[in-house]
Design a protein that fits this description.
Distance between the termini: 69 Å
Number of helices: 14
Bound molecules: 1-deoxynojirimycin, calcium ion
CATH architecture of the largest domain: Distorted Sandwich
Number of domains: 3
Radius of gyration: 26 Å
Helix content: 10-25%
Shape: globular
Largest sheet: 10 strands, antiparallel
Length: 678
């Protein structure tokens, strides 16, 4: 029988065309040998790469190349002219973050290829292999036949071997990054934003993303056929999706690759490692903090950004909010609608906004000073309606004003439908752009750099996606970039119970999100229910990382919930360490974080629409005895029928104990561990 099968295979092989000559050019492995990459050129001189994990093919031969709008493609006729390799093992400290120290441990190969055809253009492929990630990027040296690269498309492919499921957020739709995740077979991926996460049937997780997105356009990923995926760059109004003078480097194309969901989350440190170190020097002026806002009322439509009877940003209300913040230990107050320009259809134009003039019922200097006296820092707000042609020439004056007043943080906003960014073109005319095109990539960095000059931190909404640039610019503290709490005010539909368990293993792989948790009323606009239990609102402070966290609800709703409010008062925002204790994409995330500079831990857990249970060791706790302050779903809690049922209890534990909790449908759990000494 065996001989017959062998013969049959040989006969079949004879019928197939001769395989192209594949010269393996260069190979590399990760430090522990788990991940391996091969860069090859084939008989046509095409460059391919492939990846294996523990010897098993993961990414099959996938092409690398470029299309240009004004020059022949770079895809074939490449020959290797130079190669180099190196290993790096270093660690560095985050000024704020999920971990204090980050280890940067990788093996790198760099291969320079040159076309043998008449243009002789060169490109260098640099690949880094970490134990839990593979990343590569292209370097274009200065060269006569490619002085300017007008890139029509990047031809990078990702040929996933094997079947599995994907969690993906559609690209190029009106609401930008704010869509619920699709969960489909890999073969049913459409055109996705990144991070795009897949889980193969053998349990291997891969998240595709990019790192160090600078002066380029953002990468999306589209399915070609079966498991073959390809990069799709975000378009621009001028033709080429990217236009750069050589020399330049592209962003890193990153695959976080792990054996389970918890380690996938931890692998996001590699995104930071792939970015340049801090360029700002001393950033002690960047402050992680919890903040309140004149904000939720607008989303509930009980207050307005615009002037008139419902105007939220009045001097009197701001002072009341400062008193509330100070009384509860919150050190920031965001005020939206403080400035002129919100009357009428602000969404449509953006050219009505002033970034320096207040509405007459708002005394900006008075409010800022009142807050500072009480230790509550004013957080400015610049909504632009994505009209950067209007904003760019005016933002400097706005930042100057805030700096003079002593304001050290600004939230920006780019509300418009996708493709509706208005930018000034080189031709002096307004061009319409995408939120993640090269123009916006440049714009966001310009804002962050201008803000840094004035010691101001930036929290961007409707942002460019996070690719780890907070390492280089630590004043880029947070951003939105997915459906946050506001969707629970007015969203159709509201965020479903699995939303945050999806976010942890997708959007959050990019970096912090200003989700704005903590709505203890559990009610959106017109008293419509939020699909969450009370305990879950607390868990979000741990599970959805951001160094600035809002206590988003109205003061009266906090006053009505003193027990749960205590957790929001106690919870930290800056961490020495983070460990994902358990998790499955879209089902469950249990995360432990150690407070920066303090012997204190927190655990947050979120589930989905089903009842979930977890049972995790507390071995992360240091020596000695601890008081666990537990906020868990009541035994009959359920987001549909009994969302407010919460149990607040205390237990004595040590590192030898376990934490076993039930998460209600739509629920969560939040625990603070206070050291009681030895
Ligand atoms: C959308 C932002 O996400 C939200 O937080 C803000 O209140 C509005 N835009 C208005 O700027
Ligand atoms: Ca689920």
């Amino acid at each position: 029988m065996m001989r017959f099968v062998t013969k049959l295979l040989l006969a079949l092989a004879a019928l197939l065309p001769a395989p192209a000559l594949a010269d393996t050019v260069i190979r590399a492995t990760s430090p522990d040998g788990t991940l391996a990459l091969a860069l090859t050129t084939n008989g046509e001189g095409r460059i391919n790469y492939s990846v294996t994990r523990a010897g098993k093919p993961l990414i099959g031969d996938s092409q690398l190349g470029f299309l240009f709008t004004d020059a022949p493609q770079m895809l074939r006729h490449f020959t290797l002219v130079d190669q180099a390799s190196r290993s790096v093992d270093e660690s560095w400290e985050q000024p704020w973050g999920e971990w204090r120290r980050v280890r940067n441990h990788y093996n790198e190969i760099a291969a320079t290829f040159e076309e043998t055809s008449k243009l002789h253009r060169r490109m260098r492929v640099v690949a880094r292999l970490f134990d839990d990630a593979v990343a590569f990027r292209f370097e274009f040296p200065r060269q006569p036949n490619l002085a300017t690269a007008n890139i029509a498309e990047e031809l990078t492919q990702f040929r996933v071997v094997g079947n599995g499921e994907a969690w993906w957020d559609p690209a190029f739709e009106s609401n930008r990054e704010e869509y619920l995740y699709n969960r489909t077979p890999i073969a049913s991926i459409g055109t996705a934003q990144t991070p795009l996460t897949i889980r193969l049937t053998d349990g291997t997780h891969i998240a595709f993303h990019e790192a160090a997105l600078v002066d380029y356009s953002a990468m999306n990923i589209a399915k070609v056929e079966g498991g073959l995926l390809k990069a799709v760059l975000t378009p621009s109004s001028i033709g080429p999706k990217v236009s750069r003078e050589t020399p330049f480097v592209t962003p890193w194309r990153v695959m976080l690759i792990t054996g389970d969901a918890p380690s996938l989350y931890a692998a996001n440190a590699e995104i930071l490692n792939l970015n340049e170190p801090n360029k700002l020097g001393d950033v002690s002026w960047v402050h992680p903090r919890k903040y309140v806002g004149i904000w939720w009322g607008m989303h509930l439509d009980t207050q307005s950004w615009s002037s008139g009877a419902k105007h939220g940003a009045t001097t009197a209300y701001a002072k009341k909010m400062i008193d509330f913040a100070a009384a509860n230990g919150f050190t920031g107050l965001l005020v939206e609608g403080w400035n002129k320009g919100w009357d009428g259809d602000w969404f449509a134009t953006g050219d009505t906004f002033s970034f320096t003039e207040t509405y007459p019922d708002f005394d900006l200097p008075g409010v800022v000073a009142y807050g500072l006296k009480k230790g509550v820092h004013f957080i400015g707000h610049n909504e632009t309606s994505a009209n950067i042609a209007w904003y760019e020439p005016r933002m400097g004056a706005g930042f100057d004003m805030f700096q003079k007043l002593g304001v050290d943080a600004i939230k920006t906003g780019y509300v418009s439908d996708a493709g509706g960014v208005q930018a000034m073109g080189a031709d002096g005319k307004i061009h319409f752009e995408w939120h993640e095109g090269q123009v916006m990539v440049r714009h966001h960095l310009k804002v962050v750099e201008e803000a840094a000059k004035r010691h101001i931190a930036i929290d961007a909404h409707e942002p460019i996606k996070d690719t780890g640039l907070r390492r280089t610019y630590p004043n880029w503290v947070s951003r939105e970039g997915q459906r946050g709490m506001e969707y629970n005010a007015w969203g159709v539909p509201k965020n479903p119970p699995e939303h945050e368990a999806n976010l942890v293993f997708t959007r959050m792989l990019g970096g912090p999100m200003d989700f704005t948790p903590g709505v203890l009323s559990l009610m959106g606009r017109g008293n419509t229910p939020i699909l969450s239990t009370l305990a879950k609102q607390l868990a979000l402070y741990i599970v959805i990382y951001s160094p600035i966290q809002m206590a988003a609800d109205l003061p009266e709703n906090y006053a009505a919930n003193p027990g749960p409010l205590q957790f929001i008062k106690d919870v930290a925002v800056d961490w020495d360490d983070t460990r994902v204790l358990a998790g499955e994409v879209g089902d469950l995330a249990v995360i432990a974080r150690k407070t920066r500079g303090k012997n204190e831990w927190f655990v947050g857990a979120v589930g989905d629409e089903a009842e979930r249970r977890f049972d995790v060791p507390l071995s992360f706790l240091g020596k000695g005895r601890w008081r666990a302050e537990i906020y868990r779903d009541g035994d009959t809690a359920d987001y549909r029928t009994n969302p407010r049922s919460i149990v607040m209890e205390q237990r004595r534990v040590t590192a030898a104990d376990r934490l076993a909790l039930r998460i209600a449908p739509g629920g969560g759990a939040a625990v603070r561990f206070v050291s009681l000494g030895r």
